[in-house]
Amino acid sequence: MRLFKTVLCAVAIVMGASGQAQGLKDAYKDYFSIGVAVNMRNLGNDKHVAIIKNNYNSITAENDFKPQSVQPQEGQWNFRNADAIADFCRENGIKLRGHCLAWHSQVGQWMFQGANGGQATKEELYARMKTHITTVMQRYKDIIYCWDVVNEAVSDGGSDPLRNSQWKQIAGGDEFIRKAFEFAHEADPDALLFYNDYNAAVPAKRDKIYNMVKEMKEAGVPIDGIGMQGHFNVYEPSLEDIEAAIEKYSEIVDHIQFTELDIRLNREMGGQLNMNRQGEELTPERKKMFEDKYTGFFEILRRHADVIDVVTFWNVTDADSWVGVSNYPLLFDRDANPKDVYYKIVNFTPTQKEKDAAAKSVKKAANKAADEKAALAKKNYRK
After folding, report:
1. Which of 147, 242, 254, 143 is nearest to 193 (CA)?
2. Are 194 and 149 in contact (CB under 8 A)?
3. Which of 20, 111, 167, 203 maximizes the CB count within 10 A of its CB?
4. Residues with a known catalytic role
5. Is the pTM of this model over 0.85?
């Protein structure tokens, strides 16, 4: 019996050291937070809830905070699902990311229509934008620590750096982006504010995002960070381009987050909603490509842990992934079981460079906590 207990103790120690029993959030506690996008189906599935609690310390609502979800018609608010996700986070001590406030998609057309039935004026647009941003942000300011304020405003190609959205058409340029960040900062001065986009590691689009954010920050626009969505495939973008983008963005912002991570087997990537959700056959060669892409990506993340706050997987399992189950995109399969690559990501042996980055990340978190404590003490003193 004593030998049996000794063996059990040894097994427990090995499991603790290897990280298999800890989950992702514990394995990366000195590096960055690990997040996941959830929907109401996930919260009603006991197996999914167990995965979330064991692996993630940040949550993003997949769709339930998007403009059309919370305000389908002007002045008609629907917070039922958003409240449920926020309450789940509160009850389980999990941070919540806000996604998103201004986007060209999943926003009610009333936002862009004028009182006379034509196109809204710039003044009408900004008044509605401010009401929407202020109402949503103030409702959840106790639990949401950062927001994707503007989502996908940069164009994929062409000479114009901005997407030709209705926001841009009415504003006549990038003023709507500046206004959105100003309104967001007014609504919650303590929240971190992000510009978020897909294909942010593709050099041509990377440079557009970099130039836009750099110019706006120099003009005083309160942009705290850049969200890189991370909808990759096994072929591209290259790991070199991903690392180059992190290094370039870190020149102008202190906060970088990978906000919507999945890796497809087919050659599509990015955030376009019109896509082929059919993946490729999972041959041994493609499985190795998939695992190499994930493990290589996380090696990059660990090397840059001092500038990366959060890495968020977009969905819990392959079964509910927006890119299709046959694209095999996540760490948990269609039956909610961890894949081989999950253990490779959890059970890593850090290099000296990764250890140094982790130490900087821990110091950065400690300094942030001290600043927040001092700010709270100052606020209480003024009261």
Report:
1. 147
2. yes
3. 167
4. 152, 260
5. yes
